[in-house]
Amino acid sequence: MSDPDLKTRLDHLIRPQQVHRDVYTSPEIYRLEMKHLFPNCWVYIGHDSQTPNKGDYITAQIGDQPLIMVRHSDDEIHVLYNRCPHKGTKIVIDRAGNTGKFFRCPYHAWSFKTNGCLLAIPLKKGYENTGLEDTEAAHGMAPVGAMKNYRGFVFARLAPEGIGFDEFFGDSLSSLDNMVDRSPVGRLSVAGAPLRFMHNCNWKMLVENQTDTCHPMVAHESSAGTAVKIWEEMDKPEGTPTPPAMEIIAPFMSPYEFFENMGIRTWPNGHGHTGVHHSIHSDYSAVPGYVEAMNEAYGPERAQQILGENRHNTVYFPNIMIKGPIQQLRNFIALGPDKTLVESWIFRLEGAPEELTARTAMYNRMINAPTSMVGHDDLEMYERAQEGLMADGLEWVNIQRLYEEDEDFTKEAVLNGTTERQMRNQFDAWKRFMLGGAA
Fold first, then answer.
1. What is the pLDDT of residue 2?
2. CA–CA dist 146, 238 (Å, integer)
3. N or C of the chain: less Cβ packing under 10 Å?
4. Share of the chain above pLDDT 70, in %
5. Cα separation of 131 and 307, whole Å?
C-alpha cells in the first residue's frame, strides 16, 4: 500500500469522535502497525539495571522486530537487531544472559563484539576477493535507528530518521522523573522478573483502558466491591488499621465523582496521565523512615513536592504505562491483531526502605498477576469487546465523552478525569506515526 493509499485508508478509519472497528480487528491494520507505527515511535526496551555487567543482555522487541539490549565493554548500552548478518539466524533466544566479550552465532560461528561490530568469521580466506567488505554483512549486527538511556530507562526508535527523543516525549517525562526522584539517591533497579499475562485482544484496548476512569466501579464491583464489603462487615475493634491489601484494592470502588475530580492531563504525541490532583495511590500509609530519608536527600520542601505528586497511570505512547507512586511499568506487547502479551515490572527505590518494594510487589500480584482478582475483570471486558467488535450490526467505536470541537493535541491539556480526550489523543498520534510522525 503506497503512502497516499495509506493516508486515505486511515482517514476513513479515524474520526474525531469515533474509530472504525478495523483498527482493533484487521490483520492488515496490524501488519501496517508493525511496518509503520512502531518503527516511527520511541519504544521502551528495558532498564539498564537489567544489564549491570559488561556482556549482560536482555532480549526485547519493537513491533515484530527482535532486539538485543546489551552492555558493551565501555559500559555503554547498545540496542541491536537480534539477527546474524550472515544467514539471518537469531543470535540469542534467552530472555536474559551474559555473552561475555562477544556474541557468537549458533549456526556458522560468525562472532561480533557486543557493540555489534563484526569480530571474526571462520575460514575467512574463503571470502577473499569476493567483495564481502562492500556488503552490509561486513558491518556486523545492525543497530537500531536511534536509542536513548533516560535515567536508566532505555528507549529505541527503529527508523534511522525521525522525531527526536525529547520532542517525542516532551513534558511527559515528568512522570518518569517523579518515579526516579522517589528514590533518595535518584536511582531505580528492576526488582525481579515481571508477571506475564496473555490477553486475547488487541493491544490498543489495554492502552486505552489505562486512562479509562468510568469502568473501575463497574467492572471491578465483583472483585474489589466484594473485598470492600467483607472488610466493612467484619467484626473488628474500633481503630483497627486498614491492611495494606485493603488500601490497594478499596480505591477501585471509588465513585464517579472521585475520578472526575482526579483529573486527566494529556500531552502531545499520545502521552497522558490520570491523577492530576489525587489518585487511588494518594492515601497509602506512611512507611517508617522513608520521609526522613527523602528530607535528608532533597530537603523538606523538594521532598514534599516529589511525594505529593500521586499520578495514577501515565501512558507513554504507543505501548507502556507507568505508576510513579508505586514504581511499576506495564508493557503491552502486540503479538497479533487479537493477541497481546502484558509484562508487569516493578522497581526498587534505591536507598529507600524495603517495605516500599514489598507494597509494590503486593500491588502487582493483586492487580496484574494472571491469578489477580482485578486483572481478570479487565481481561473479561477486553475479550468480550474483541468478540463483540466482530458483530456486523455496528462498525464504529465511540470515544466521544466530553468531546470538544477543534481539540488541539499539540498542546497540553488538563480536564475532567472522566474525559476520553486521552483516547482521542492516542488515535491522533496513532494516525500521524502510521504516516511517519509529522505534525
1. 55
2. 58
3. C
4. 99
5. 60
Contact status, residue 103 vs residue 111, Cβ threshold 8 Å: yes
Q: How far is CA 25 from the centre of its chain?
A: 21
| Contact criterion met (CB below 8 Å) for 221 and 252 | no
Total residue count of the chain as it appears in this document: 439
Task: Report how far apart, in Å, the C-alpha atoms of 383 and of each of 313, 349, 368, 379, 391 are.
Answer: 22, 35, 16, 6, 13
- The mean per-residue pLDDT over the stretch 128-135 comes to 95
Left if phi > 0, otherwise alpha if psi is -120 to 50, otherwise beta: which for 129? left
Contact 273, 264 (CB under 8 A): yes
Question: Could you give the residue ranges of the DSSP H alpha helices within 145-215?
Answer: 165-169, 173-181, 203-209
What average pLDDT does the segment 43-72 reach?
Answer: 98
For 48-59, how does the pLDDT look when each residue is reduced to its tens digit (9 = 90+)?
A: 999 999 999 999
Tell me the torsion sign for CA atoms 415, 417, 423, 426. Answer: positive
Residue 438 pLDDT class (50, 70, 90 cuts) = low
Strands 314-316 and 320-323: antiparallel
For residues 60 and 69, what is the distance between their CA atoms, to the nearest angstrom? 7
**Dist. CA 82–CA 312, nearest whole Å:** 35
Please tell me which residue, 239 or 202, carries the higher pLDDT value: 202
Contact 30, 334 (CB under 8 A): yes
For residue 260, give every residue at least 6 positions away whose Cβ sits within 8 Å of its Cβ, in sequence order, or none. Answer: 213, 416, 417, 418
CB 77 within 8 A of CB 66: no
| 3 state SS of 348 | strand
Residue from 275, 271, 281, 273 nearest 259 by CA: 275
Pick from 155-169, 228-242, 331-345: least confident = 228-242
Helix (H) or strand (E) holding 154: strand 153-157
The alpha carbon dihedral of 348, 196, 377, 222 has a sign of negative
Percent of the chain predicted with pLDDT > 90: 94
pTM: predicted TM-score of the whole model, two decimal places: 0.96
Task: Judge whether 257 and 219 are in contact, CB under 8 Å.
Answer: no
Question: Residue 141: what pLDDT?
Answer: 98
Q: What is the mean pLDDT of the segment spanning 200-204?
A: 98
* Whole-number Cα distances in Å, 288 to 103, 244, 292, 294, 298: 46, 14, 8, 12, 17
